[in-house]
Sequence to fold (244 residues):
Amino acid sequence: MGGRVPGMTARAGCRVTHEALSGYFPDGRFAQRLNALPEFGCIYVRNAKVGTASVLMWLHRIHTGDQHWVPERSVHAEHAVPGVEDLGEDRLAAMLAGDAFRFSFVRDPLRRAESAYLNRIVQMPRYLGRVKLQRALGLPEDAAGHLTPEQFVAALEVLEPMAMNPHWRPQHLNLMHPLVPYDLLGRLETFADDLGRIQEAAGLPRVPAEVRNASNRRGGAPFDAGQLRRLRRVYEADCDLYGY
Fold:
């Protein structure tokens, strides 16, 4: 069930400022992960591989009033939900600091890692995200090169979590914990119910929502029991924070 998650409030004495947000990620690009509906006082923090396409399509329908909009190709490329280009980093920082209703979604960390591996490594013939994994293992760097499940897990075990690709970076880092407090965190496993709770709590109009880009297990589950135990250690903080 979605809601406030223990440990997801801001640190005592820690202010959500533009400077603090910019310093959180090595690349300083905190605003690239944010979309907002200023007309409804609502801001969404994207968490890769956790229903982002579905949420963005839902927010686009609310923002534009087109309740049946469907992208021709990619939700991420075609949505009109305001972001940093429209609102500016200072406005987004203020919304995260409490000027807006703040929400996002989390997911079982092991299922999320499975989805990331199948989608980004197995199903994409060329993906630059492979290169950092290969580099961590001392392998030849090739965006089209294959990585086995064992190699994927081994790379995650040695990479610095903050430096990981957002698709397999621990979720509490994507969500800027403990800097940013949230009004509501939904769960992908109860997506429809929690979207309804967000809609009610934020005072958003009712529009149809659809699940987009749902992952599937073509070829079966990629990780064996031992690899799953190791992944649980990689994502131990997520498991503890979100109760998985």
